[in-house]
Write a structure and sequence with these properties.
Shape: globular
Radius of gyration: 25 Å
Strand order of the largest sheet: 1-2
Number of domains: 3
Distance between the termini: 7 Å
Number of strands: 4
Strand content: under 5%
Largest sheet: 2 strands, antiparallel
Length: about 375
């Protein structure tokens, strides 16, 4: 693990050391360079969280004024490089957690990031303070988000959200569509317009699946503008040459039909000792799920095949006990919050707490530990 210098003046900064570093980086493989980025990024996030945890106390003491700063924002930007939005989130959490010592401690010592704590702030109280603090440490961000949603549903305080997609110039990862400018506005400055409308859940699910498939083909994230541009190009191409996708559609239908026919043929091959899921089992699950998350009322594309009987216990890939889930719901289910997990997802019952006596409990805890463990790289 690289050394972390608490004093920037003690960090190596000679020309020779910089030159050696540049030469060393040039010799790294892509995998080694990526691991180094992960390691340094982990250190950066850790120190950013620790610094952010100090801000509520700095605000309370008005320390920034004593040190010559005009505001807490100037103080945090210059010393910690935090954005104004992040500063507001941290200060709001500090105010919210004043009477919640367990959550306040997590914020102050930087053990949990403010984005993660922000997800539980709406349900935090003096009664569930310790419990939520424990959940914040145990669950991933996505699993914690699902947990909060389930809590809100059971207490009848969640608000129904309209299914909608907003087409704009950036996607969720901040990737802009500057490459679209020469095609759609070659001689004029590009003025982006927002188009917002409601969609039927079935249509929304299809759109998100198509977007995911296009991203897999392009091997990079795509914004909704880029997706719509591809739709437009395909439509124009179809109009010009009369090309249709009937043959392709028939192949997809035949594949789905064959999946159910092959299910009986694969029963004898279920007892497999490797973690690799056979392609025929993939096909059966995809035909059943349609490529979407099988958790009730979820329209997100499925990203993970989850063994409801745990592969570590049964050592097989029976498609009747493998469900396709999105990442968030897989993390939630893997945490042990489903009482009757081996039933159909539509019949699942959510637990308020995982059952520590269940045979899956130790496996789930071990998986959570492995997933949360930082990946260190020793240069």
């Amino acid at each position: 693990m690289p050394a972390v210098h608490n004093d920037i003046l003690k960090a190596p900064a000679s020309r020779a050391s910089i030159s050696e570093t540049e030469q060393h980086l040039a010799d790294l493989t892509d995998s080694e360079l990526y691991k180094k980025c992960q390691n340094y990024g982990l250190n950066a996030r850790t120190w950013a969280r620790k610094f952010a945890g100090l801000l509520p106390e700095v605000q309370r003491r008005q320390l920034y004024k004593k040190k010559g700063f005009h505001s807490i924002y100037e103080f945090a930007k210059q010393l910690g490089g935090l954005s104004e939005a992040s500063i507001n989130k941290v200060l709001n959490l500090g105010e919210n957690f004043k009477d919640k010592p367990a959550l306040k401690s997590l914020l102050e010592n930087g053990k949990v990031g403010w984005s993660k704590l922000e997800k539980i702030a709406s349900i935090a109280s003096t009664i569930n303070d310790a419990n939520l603090a424990q959940k914040s440490l145990q669950l991933s961000t996505r699993a914690l988000e699902i947990y909060v949603q389930q809590i809100k549903k059971t207490s009848h305080v969640s608000n129904a959200k309209n299914n909608s997609i907003i087409w704009q110039d950036c996607n969720q990862n901040g990737h802009s569509d500057k490459n679209l400018a020469p095609t759609y506005a070659p001689n004029h400055p590009l003025n982006w317009n927002n188009l917002s409308f409601k969609l039927h859940p079935h249509i929304e699910r299809k759109m998100r699946l198509i977007k995911q498939q296009l991203e897999q083909e392009c091997k990079q994230p795509l914004s909704w503008n880029e997706v719509m541009a591809k739709f437009a190009e395909q439509f124009e191409s179809k109009q010009s040459n009369g090309h249709t996708k009937q043959t392709e559609h028939k192949q997809i239908v035949e594949t789905c039909k064959n999946c159910t026919q092959q299910e009986e043929d694969t029963k004898e091959t279920h007892n497999i000792t490797t973690r690799y899921i056979p392609a025929v089992v993939h096909a059966i699950i995809n035909a059943r799920s349609g490529g979407t998350c099988e958790f009730s009322n979820c329209n997100k594309p499925a990203t993970i095949y989850h063994h409801t009987r745990r592969f570590a216990l049964r050592k097989n890939h029976d498609p009747n006990f493998i469900v396709a889930l999105c990442t968030g719901h897989e993390r939630f289910v893997q945490a042990g919050f489903i009482e009757n997990e081996e039933n159909l997802p539509s019949n699942w019952r959510v637990l308020s707490e995982p059952d520590p006596t269940h045979k899956k409990y130790k496996i789930d805890r071990r998986v959570a530990e492995l997933r949360s463990a930082p990946l260190y790289y020793n240069p």
